[in-house]
Structure formats: structure tokens, C-alpha cells
Write a structure and sequence with these properties.
mainly alpha; 69% helix; globular
Length: 170
């Protein structure tokens, strides 16, 4: 009996998750610390709820279960509404859950995350610029850059969703 395509994919996924990969923080501590500093600078002065929305949307787009779990958990701990968390992936169809400013940030997050698919359209950038002053907009962009980097680290090193290394670092 031949295994189904789903069974083959599941077996491949399981074997990848069981294969140890490098610990990026230990293998490249200077790069890791620099990214932590960049991430902290990006967040500085931004609404914490907006920070989590941006990180969740980028993590959804990148298929990063590790970061998605971490940031939805962080959002819940910060008091984010469960219904909004469920609607982030379909925010355009659920605009009533998000402010105009949040919608502009989510659109910019998508454009920057998917930049290879058509750049960052002028109208998306202009909409964000209407809602954020120049310094805020720069930090929103920096936050999108950092979450995309964190997603790539987690995916490349096979981080397991549900395990939060921040907790073991203390």
C-alpha cells in the first residue's frame, strides 16, 4: 500500500523537526545580539498591540509557526482581544476589527514581507505615511524587517512552535 501524499509530507515534516539544527544565538552571538538590539529599537515608542499585530501578520505570511505561537501568546498576555487575533489573517474582510492605522500597518507589513512579489506599492506606503509620522513609520518598517528576519531564523533552524526560548534564557 502506497503512502498518501499527505503522509509523505507529514513524515518529511516530522523528520525535519527531529533533526537537530544549529542554535543561532550560540553559533552567531554577535549577530543575534545585534538583532535583539535592532528589534528593541524598532519597538521603541510603538503601541505594543500594533507591534504584535505586525509580527503576527508577517509570521502568518511567512508560515512561521514558532513566531506565530510566540506573538499570539504575547498578544493574549497583553490583553489582546481573541476575536482580533482570529481575524488578522483576513483583516481586509474584517476591517471592523481594526483601526484605520492598524489596517495601514497591516497592508505595509504585507507589502514589505512579500516585497519580491511586486515591491512596496506607492499607495500602500502613502496610506501608512498618513497614519504614522516619519519616525514612527521608520520604526514600523524596522519592526517588519526584524520579524521577517526572526521568521527566517526560526524556519531555517527548525524552531518548534510552543517552545519559547525566552523563558529558558532567564
Amino acid at each position: 500500500m502506497k503512502p498518501t501524499q499527505h503522509a509523505k509530507q507529514t513524515a518529511a515534516t516530522v523528520s525535519v523537526q527531529e533533526t537537530p539544527r544549529l542554535n543561532f544565538a550560540k553559533a552567531a552571538p554577535k549577530a543575534f545580539k545585534a538583532l535583539i538590539g535592532f528589534d528593541a529599537a524598532a519597538r521603541d515608542g510603538l503601541d505594543p498591540a500594533l507591534v504584535e499585530l505586525i509580527q503576527i501578520r508577517a509570521s502568518l505570511l511567512n508560515g512561521c509557526a514558532y513566531c506565530l505561537h510566540m506573538h499570539t501568546s504575547d498578544a493574549r498576555k497583553a490583553g489582546e482581544d481573541e476575536a482580533r487575533l482570529h481575524m488578522i489573517g483576513v483583516w481586509r474582510e474584517a476591517r471592523n476589527f481594526f483601526t484605520e492605522k492598524e489596517q495601514a500597518a497591516l497592508a505595509l507589513t504585507e507589502a514589505v514581507t512579500l516585497v519580491a512579489q511586486g515591491g512596496v506599492p506607492d499607495d500602500v506606503y502613502a496610506r501608512a505615511a498618513e497614519h504614522f509620522d516619519e519616525a514612527e513609520l521608520a520604526r514600523v518598517l524596522a519592526l517588519v524587517f526584524t520579524i521577517n528576519t526572526w521568521n527566517r531564523i526560526a524556519l531555517s533552524t527548525a524552531k518548534v512552535a510552543g517552545e519559547d526560548e525566552r523563558e529558558s534564557a532567564h
